[in-house]
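Risk register update: the risk of archive-format incompatibility is retired. Evidence:
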Amino acid sequence: MNAVEINPENLLAAERKIPSDTPIVMLNLVTYRESVEYPGMERCTGREAYLTRYAPAFNKAAAAAAVNGIEVVYLGAVAACIVPSQKCQWDEVVLVRYPSFSALRRVIESPLYKSDAEPLRKAALKDWQFIVTLPSTRTSQARVE
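Archived output:
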């Protein structure tokens, strides 16, 4: 399976671990393609394609799936990897809050996402990690002063 594919088995496994109505934050580690040429669109960088083509198509699919409350919490360029387990390959980190895991699934499994957004994501990204995170119950103990 391509590094930018969503694995249906992984979705099911994640769903079993996540309380249905719990808000989640998705950690996206992305590596962009240098250049993207998508049928019917002008050539651009992978970053431009992701932010100016994929993101609006995703938002349109979310609206059509009646999913509200999705919020980009953070978008930042990777400046350096201090303790890389391998070559530091990520271009950017994107944190996106969803009202629930089921809301995320409604969007990414919708026909509009499959037809309009997913091809743009695949064209824009060279590599991708899509990691579900849950709020920690121990944040008060993790405080650094």
